[in-house]
Amino acid sequence: MARRTPHVAVLIETSRSYGRGLLRGVRRYLAEFGPWSVFMELRALDSPPPLWLKGWRGDGILTRTGTGAMADAVRRVGVPVVELRSPRLNAGAPWVGVDNRAMGKIVADHLMQRGFRHFGVCEIGTEIYFDERRVNFIQTVTRAGFVCDAYHAKGQPEKPAQWEKHQDDLAAWVKGLPKPAGVMACTDQLGFFLLDACARAGVAVPEEVAVVGVENEESLCTMAVPTLSSVKFNAERIGYEAAALLDRLMAGEAAPSEPILIEPIGVVTRGSSDVVAIDDPEIAQAVRFIRETACDGIAVKDILKEMAISRSALERRMRAALGRSPNEEITRVRVERVKELLISTDQPLTTIARRTGFQTPQYLVQVFRRQVGVTPGVFRRERS
């Protein structure tokens, strides 16, 4: 017998970059395993429950629950549900989302690789996953031997009545940070606020304070001055996995006992953190040269052609500044670029090797496995 087409309500906001990424992942799943009859509409995260949901008789729901009213409306339908925001409002539903415990380490590594030795974190305690981001960031820099200052936003700073007071407090905090400092804002909205506070305090970004947000909401990141670096979630993979889970639930499988968590892709570097914070100007120049040209197949001798410095001095001073040799930094930059291409493209290894400065695909696999712990093929499958 032909399979009956499931009727599924998709209650995911279309107003944010992340929500649109989730929808692309759902669409990819349907292209492979559908069809579904999909009920959806243009909406924001805090939109009220659609009127049609009250009398709707379907088979399953994918939801990003933004209000208590939405949680109540979804529960009343009485069908399998997969939550894609957090378990806070929709506690009984299985949850597929971002691994926020990995978030802070990604940002800390991004800033430490740029030479920062002083750190701060700006957070607001409205969601447990904001706390997870903050804790992981602080733990990572502390384990590396550094100190991190924390700013906790109070109230609702986005509301006009609290905006000016919040920005004055935030500007005072930024002014008091030891410089140069790398700061994680636990959301892009806070990152946007933080850049405004830096301008009010007369603090140069990214030279004195580098800022990295979280969520890669393009409307905020590209509107900010300077543009805001941010952690990009693997939204399409999350949407795909959520659709797959809902399909299994509608087929009668039991809900998983643990959430399905997907690691972020990495930091999208924009103007707010595109800097090398190294006190040694010659080594800062060398690091910039490596980051701009590593994938062109350069070697240490090419760095020495650009600078009036001996090889032994370059080795010694770069290790003092970054804890890595010039060769190790070249390899690190290449491997990071390989990761980006594996996740964001379908290009074969021969093309990726050519684009990242590796002589052969075989050598790329050898280096990648040594650096990352898995082959490029396994890395791609786990994140696609």
Descriptive report:
The protein is an alpha/beta fold and about 375 residues long. The chain has three domains: about 5-100 and about 235-260, Response regulator (Rossmann fold); about 100-235, Response regulator (Rossmann fold), CATH 3.40.50; about 280-384, Arc Repressor Mutant, subunit A. Helix content is about 50%, strand content about 15%. Helix 3 (about 105-115) runs parallel beside helix 4, helix 12 crosses helix 14 and helix 12 (about 325-345) packs across helix 15. It starts with 6 loop residues before the first strand and ends with a helix. The model has no long low-confidence stretch (mean pLDDT about 90).
In short:
About 50% of the residues lie in helices and about 15% in strands. It has about 375 residues and is an alpha/beta fold.
- Total of domains: 3
Q: Please, what is the CATH homologous superfamily of the largest domain?
A: Response regulator
DSSP summary: helix tally: 15
Based on the coordinates given, report the CATH architecture of the largest domain.
3-Layer(aba) Sandwich
Number of strands: 12
Strand order of the largest sheet: 7-6-8-9-10-12
The CATH topology of the largest domain is: Rossmann fold
- The run of helices and strands is EHEEHEEHEHEHEHEHEHEEHHHHHHH
Mean pLDDT: 91
Q: Mind sketching the topology for me?
A:
Elements: E1 7-11, H1 17-33, E2 37-39, E3 60-63, H2 68-77, E4 81-83, E5 96-98, H3 103-113, E6 119-123, H4 128-143, E7 148-152, H5 160-176, E8 181-185, H6 188-201, E9 209-214, H7 218-223, E10 229-232, H8 235-250, E11 260-262, E12 266-268, H9 281-293, H10 300-306, H11 311-322, H12 326-344, H13 349-355, H14 361-372, H15 376-383
Parallel strand pairs: 1-2, 1-3, 3-4, 5-11, 6-7, 6-8, 8-9, 9-10
Antiparallel strand pairs: 10-12
Helix pairs in contact: 1-8, 3-4, 5-6, 9-12, 12-14, 12-15
